[in-house]
What does this fold into?
Amino acid sequence: MADKKRVLSGMRPTGRLHLGNLHGALENWVNLQDQYECFYFIADWHALTTDYASPGDIRENSRQMLLDWLSAGLDPNRSTLFIQSDVKEHAELYLLLAMITPLAWLERNPTYKEQQQQLDQKDLGTYGFLGYPVLQAADIIVYRANGVPVGKDQLPHIELTREIARRFNFLYKSEIFPVPDGLLTQSPVLPGLDGRKMSKSYGNCIFITDSEKDIAEKILRMMTDPQRIRRNDPGDPEVCPVFAYHKLYSSPSEIEEVAHGCRTAGIGCVDCKKILIKNVAARLAPVRQKRAQLENDVEGLRDIIARGNARAAREAAATMELVRAAIGI
It folds into this structure.
């Protein structure tokens, strides 16, 4: 692994993972294991930035997230899987980086006000919420990661991390921190059941852990092309959320069949959805099967996290020795 570049990424344990998480991030993480030295962490401290008033589910959500990761193909023998709050060096570096990060950098963060508007039912006027990009920067550079796999909407966060790393290196005349690159993932944006972006807050998700019955019921009620009011109305598959799923789950011949059938009204929406239900259920069956095998292996899960935490802590401690020496404390 020594000759491989290092990547790091994490997810907040705010609930069950859905198909948007699977295709938008998790599958890419699995593929990166063959090319990079991978560190993936459960960002439980980050979950507190929005859920500080009701943290009771974070621990169980963390366990469920680990199960989802392993079921989807993350390999603890090829990746370091760990929990953020178990590696205290994250907090130490966060404190030190907070001392040098200009307030204006945080206030111009494009997602700061957007998330405040989207989550207006929560009081997000906190220091922790304003400063979470600094904690994110600490998460990344404490492992001296070379890259961070992200979607396009997350690039501004990585740019802030790059600026903080450069500023530290400049102020303390060091080259401790590589300036990490954003590894842009070309991930499809999966719509939710109602056509909006799939999000737990919208209640429009298909979850990785859903049963075949749940998957069928959800897909059958998924919205389609609003122009297809009657069975014999032609439609446009490109504006239909169901067709976005066919592109991921169906064979080329099936995609061609449903696209042609939609445009010519040769196939009804229910029949189109039945093809998709079959394919989604088949694709997720191995994931659910592996998850069922892992779920009761309490000791095995503990061992995976213990080994991951220990390796992450060694790497983070080595970095912090260099950081303290550079600052002179």
In short: The beta strands are 6-11, 37-42, 79-83, 147-150, 181-184.
